[in-house]
Design a protein that fits this description.
With about 250 residues, the protein is α/β, with parallel strands linked by helices. It has helices at about 30-40, 65-70, 85-95, 105-110, 110-120, 155-165, 185-195, 210-220, 230, 240-245, and strands at about 5-15, 15-20, 25-30, 45-50, 75-80, 100, 125-135, 140-145, 150-155, 170-175, 200-205, 225, 250. Helix 1 packs parallel to helix 2 and helix 8 crosses helix 10 (about 240-245).
Length: about 250
């Protein structure tokens, strides 16, 4: 059995952690360094930090945010937002990230995934896959880019398969239909991606109850469980989630 990992996510805007619903209605959720330090002490297995405005503002990730957060943790840090070329990846890794997450740039230039994997190692490359439901797509899920603002007429599951072939090591699918709603992960979307590839899949978007985490594993086939709101606003502690999963028979690192 795979060890299930818990990954809090810091969505960043203007130097603060923020949280939205369906990628909009953004509200403040605290200081990133304080959250990062707190989550490591709580037993987080990994941490994600996404500069949510970088692509829309046509800029790279704020490296000072990466440096500040990486300085207070030693668990793996995945950084995304505005990463558009090999130089951007190198800068983010030098700033303290262990992995990078790409989305819009990879879709625009799939060869970037292959080049990044070859240059920095496959295990550093995560591909974020944002999607919304669209029955016109073969899988029923359409890719969206630019912070969830632009559907592009491409099937999300087909893209996931392509990313695996190009050398990505982890896929991070987020359903816009579930993001920030606290109504549970989009298990259909997560499972569709997980069934199509042999890579670890991160469940993301909508966790609101302890059972949601469990369902993401048994129904969604996710190996890494990302959440933001329930951790930022202290609905649950990471240890509560891990103990719940352990009691359900899943393997976690307590």
């Amino acid at each position: 059995m795979n060890v299930i990992k818990i990954m809090p996510c810091l969505d960043m805007k203007e130097g603060r952690v923020v949280k939205g619903v369906h990628f909009v209605d953004i509200r403040d959720a605290g200081d990133p360094v304080e959250h990062a330090s707190f989550y490591q002490k709580e037993g987080a297995d990994e941490l994600a930090m996404l500069d949510i405005a970088a692509t829309l503002e046509n800029r790279t990730t704020r490296l000072e945010w990466v440096k500040n957060v990486s300085a207070v943790i030693d668990i793996p840090l995945t950084v995304g937002g505005g990463i558009a070329c090999l130089n951007d990846i190198e800068d983010v890794l030098k700033a303290g990230a262990g992995k990078v997450s790409m989305n819009s740039a990879a879709i625009k230039n799939p060869d970037l995934v292959k080049e990044a994997s070859e240059n920095f190692g496959s295990d550093t490359i995560t591909i974020a896959i944002d999607a919304c439901r669209n029955t016109a797509m073969p899988s029923g899920f359409e890719l969206v880019v630019s912070g969830g603002t632009t559907p592009i007429g491409k099937d999300a599951v087909e893209w996931a398969k392509q990313c695996e072939d190009l050398g990505a090591s982890i896929l991070l699918p987020t359903s816009m239909d579930g993001d920030g709603t606290l109504k549970g992960y989009d298990l259909e979307f997560t499972r569709a991606i997980a069934d199509a590839v042999s890579l670890p899949v991160v469940a993301s978007g909508g966790a609101g109850s302890l059972d949601d985490f469990y369902r993401a594993v048994v129904d969604g086939r996710a190996q890494i469980l990302l959440a933001a709101s329930v951790f930022h606003f202290r609905t649950f502690s990471i240890q509560e989630v891990k103990q719940f999963l352990k009691n359900k028979g899943l393997e976690v690192l307590l």
